[in-house]
Design brief:
154 residues, alpha+beta
Length: 154
Amino acid sequence: MKKIILALIFILNSAFSCEAFNIDLRDWTLMSEFVTPLILDATSEDLGRVVYQNYQRISPHGTLEIILTEGKGSGWLYVPEYVDNSKKLMPASEYKILEIDGHKAIFERQPHLPPALSVYVDESRVLNIESPALKQEELISIAREILSSWKNTK
């Protein structure tokens, strides 16, 4: 009986927490959403969730993926103070360090992957936006729109 009650509490909590990420992006239609809870196997402790959302735009045609990690188990985004120009794993020409409305961010462009923007929202949330159809400025604009909508709901 205890496990059933805990499962119901978890399901209700997940349903209510999903509402916090309903974003209405101009010109984009939400096509699919998948939420993965981050649950510690050993203790069944709820450590957060990962929300995957796929959007589509009709004109000009494009797709967009937003991945939000939130909770104490989602990790954090390390944003270095500057781009290291020495030859290492990621050449400086492939990523940029940015600040978007007071939030540290990294823009990354790899030859065989869509451009990606990762934004450190706060100690428990990281926002990732990827799209083969968008340029850096457009990804930043969408990040600003999402960050602004979160500020307006608090």
